[in-house]
Amino acid sequence: MSVVLACVVPPVTAVLYGSLGVRRRREARWRRTLAERYAAATADDPYIGTDELWWPEDDVQACAARLVLDGLVTVNHRGNLGLTAAGADPERRAGHPLPDALLAALRRRTASAALGNLLVHDTAFRAARAEFHAAVRARLDAGKPRTPRPPGCLTVVGVLLLVLELTFTTMALLDHRPRGTVDWTASVLVGAALLAQFLWLHLSERRGDAEAWRCDPSAGYPERAGVHPALTELAASDPESAARLRTSRLRQRRRRNRGRRRRGNAGAGV
């Protein structure tokens, strides 16, 4: 009996691990293709994917840094962004849709404004930002390779058959007492194959849990490595302005006079 089981159980185990390896290799190839496409896209346009980064390094901060570096905008000690003479020129452009949208938002203001205030209250800038990233994702999704097919009904049936095979083989192995060297060798081989099959079930379960908790890779793209070049350049050339931009992002509401009376009211009282 042990010899018969040794002719069946190890090949089944090899097929199980072979199918698991093929599927993982296919998914790894798919993810690598996505990563290469994304890397090529971000090499041409470093603003791609920056909306998903933490706010000190996202696209809004990068746009403001680019405008400061190009001499179109200045930032004061309170974090308010103001147009320079070049920035106020309607013919001047930043050369990219996102910085151009931020520059247009500042031109619509009658006074300087904080970056956080613009992001919260300027709907046109938010719409331009969302439109840019939506167009980028649509362009990347257009040529994306097909998503690997998830396990279906055949996989469930296969797992049920595997459980039945494990149960039958275990009972047969425990019920039969090996006799001779050949039987003992076959029993050890079958036992090792059974342990490998139990381990395969455990690996499949862990893999399923990881896929359930992990974000669907087809819904997004790998995070862009590194910081936007404009932020790096501004931090190196003008760290004070870089710190002021971070302060500007935290200011979402404009405070006037800070509790002091206005000049008109003060003059009327006199």
Automatic annotation (TrEMBL):
Keywords: Membrane, Transmembrane, Transmembrane helix. Residues 246-264 have a biased composition (Basic residues). Residues 232-270 are annotated as: Disordered. The chain crosses the membrane at residues 154-174, 181-201. It comes from the Bacteria. This is Uncharacterized protein. It comes from Streptomyces phaeofaciens.
